[in-house]
């Protein structure tokens, strides 16, 4: 998959963001009812892309209001963990794509050294 070349901290961040997305789909999209969720992950030494698709009612989380006292912290966290976040509604499915790019200065696990 290429994840062995990707910094472990970045993998942890994107994994936590995916967990947040999945939790929101189950809790808010399907409202605890059964439903289908598909996940496709691709990785290269330069980036990790995760596409999450569901059949819950159409909802673009990127249009949600920012964090306040009632919530909204999850999407802010997702935007922080991923460099690119996109949404589309296609064939009656919500598709959220998260891309995490390897950043300058992040350690290269293969060498143990920071890349400049």
UniProtKB/TrEMBL annotation:
Gene3D superfamilies: Histidine kinase-like ATPase, C-terminal domain (3.30.565.10). The keyword Cell division does not apply. InterPro entries: Anti-sigma-factor_SerPK (IPR050267), HATPase_C_sf (IPR036890), HATPase_dom (IPR003594). It comes from the Archaea. Residues 5-99 form the Histidine kinase/HSP90-like ATPase domain. Keywords: Kinase, Serine/threonine-protein kinase, Transferase. One of its GO terms (molecular function) is protein serine/threonine kinase activity. Pfam families: HATPase_c_2. This is Putative anti-sigma regulatory factor, serine/threonine protein kinase.
């Amino acid at each position: 998959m290429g994840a062995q070349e990707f910094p472990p901290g970045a993998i942890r961040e994107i994994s936590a963001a995916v967990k947040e997305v999945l939790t929101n789909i189950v809790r808010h999209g399907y409202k605890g009812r059964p439903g289908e969720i598909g996940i496709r992950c691709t990785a290269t030494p330069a980036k990790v892309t995760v596409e999450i698709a569901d059949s819950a009612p159409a909802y673009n989380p990127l249009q949600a209001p920012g964090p306040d006292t009632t919530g909204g912290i999850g999407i802010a966290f997702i935007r922080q963990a991923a460099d690119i976040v996109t949404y589309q509604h296609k064939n009656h499915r919500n598709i959220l794509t998260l891309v995490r790019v390897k950043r300058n200065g992040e350690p290269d696990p293969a060498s143990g050294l920071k890349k400049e």
